[in-house]
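yo

u said u wanted the structure for the complex thing, so here. seqs first:
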Amino acid sequence: MKTIIDNYIRKEMFPNIWCPGCGNGIVLGAIIRAIDELKWDKNEIVAVSGIGCSSRITGYVDFCTMNTTHGRALPFATGIKMANPDLKVIVVMGDGDCSAIGGNHFIHAARRNIDLTAIIINNMIYGMTGGQYSPLTPTGKFGSTAPYGNIDQSFDLAKLATAAGASYVARGTVYNVRQSTSLIKKALDKKGFSVVEIISDCPVSYGKMNKMKSPVDMLKWIKDITVSKKIWEGLSSDEKKGKYMVGEFLSKDRPDYTELYEEIIKKAQATGGNK
Amino acid sequence: MNNLKKKKNIKLLQGNEACAEGALLAGVRFFAGYPITPSSEIAENMARKLPKIGGKFMQMEDEIASMAAVIGASIAGLKSLTATSGPGMCLKQENLGFAIINEIPCVVVNAQRGGPSTGLPTKPSQGDMMQARWGTHGDHPIIALAPSTVNEILTLTIKAFNFSEKYRTPVILLLDEVIAHMREKVEIPAPEDIEVINRKKPTVPPEEYLPFKPDEDGVPPMANFGEGYRYHITGLVHDYKGLPTSNSQEIDAFIRRLHNKIEKSIKDIIIIERYLLDDAKIALIAYGSVARAAERTVKLAREEGLKVGLLKLLTIWPFCSEEVNKLAQQVDLIIVPEMNLGQMVLEVERASRGKCRVVPYGRVDGELINPIEILGKIQEEI
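structre next:
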């Protein structure tokens, strides 16, 4: 039976490289369903990724796709979008990819409010390289490079993106796929820099080192640590510790960078001369 | 006569301005960069001029992002340029490799200053010649051009774009602080007098398009993103479809093709100038601002009856090994003046294969090499 998914994937790339129980496939499905609901033309979509397990998503989808260098997906995407603002540019990153090596690019893409949709698959670990802790690993959790527990404080990507100037910020999970699909759809449809963080699971690295050996254990854990906006607002600061709010954080209208640059072109052409 | 005079568009330009002019004549429509001495005037010129012709300028958050944005814009169809100097060139190396493996046309200017590290921001150097060749990791080819006058900066910038489009490769334009900041008379050619090369486009429908299958010249036709050809680009070694491969035969053929597409066109790519070499017994080999001094040295030496000539390199990578080998069979001595302690001289030694004596002359105090000191070196060696 042919499904929606079949219309959007490169079949010759399957089976995928992901481990059994990995959340990346769930996010891939959510992205495809969101695009299908928007009825976008595949020829107008560009998907750009960095390096890591999640970044392999771009190889599996039948758009113009680009698997770039570690942390650099956003500036590559920025060049594409500037060159051809009619293209719909989606950027898929992992948590280490986006918030460590790509952290500077992330805040500047948000600051410019360039019309890209950034989807960050946050499994709280570097999965591909074997489970090293990332800037999104919660304090106290274990990684292969945090054998005695992680003392780092983790980033809150949603707050970071909001403070830096993004137009749309949301967080979903691989546990609640319907909500994630709907958040991704809104982000795709939003003009300006849109950010959706999807909390995901890496049972073979994060789970194994943090006493959640099965994918089901991990999904249950994701369910336990996430709360809706409504519940979140009623929690005390102590109760909020170790929990993540999911849902929409921000949706505002602000001119995107490509529109602002069109104004620059008009200004430059109006002044004439070659100075 | 009057008519001829009228036609000429002569301007007094700074080297960096000439680079911007050349880029515009070559069809540049996107620039991404980050401020750095001594290349910033290229960015400033681009910021002013690109929007006037509907192009785009971006000042990025760093040099890494600049290189990435340039590659992205090129894939989406715009001829793209970035400009920097040593410290920035170091940061561009990662994505330069991405452009090489994915055969993305773009031009990267490095206005060389003294190094290592912050080094000498406002003084010239030729310390980055080997970095231009081997800076990004992995076994890869590169094209690097090195003008020695402001006029040559303009013409070689156009060449750099043409080579990048023709061979689908990033091209490095190596300037140095002196020629980047110097002002000279430049003849701006009329657009109709310039050869502008654009990337080959696929002639097959999208369902038959193999984005990395080469034509006979070793260069695959390039569809820009958004033109209806959906395909994958990856920094992983890839097959004809652009999908990652671990097949050793495919890997071998791919890496060899990247090299061969440049190697087989070496006659087109290598640009050199021979100055009074026909009867020479002593040859100077130089590029960039040092070549200017070397040319003067040749005149001074000839006045003293010394048979000295100059081989001036405008293309420094790929290196003109064949020409140097021939020269080594003709002359008794080759002197290689350069603003480093021996980079090009290694290539000259390799290419001359012991057929003549090869002597380095290096200067690394941030000052230009002058004609008199090269002459002194000649007299010391004979």
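The radius of gyration of chain B is 21 Å. Chain B has 14 helices and 16 strands.
cya
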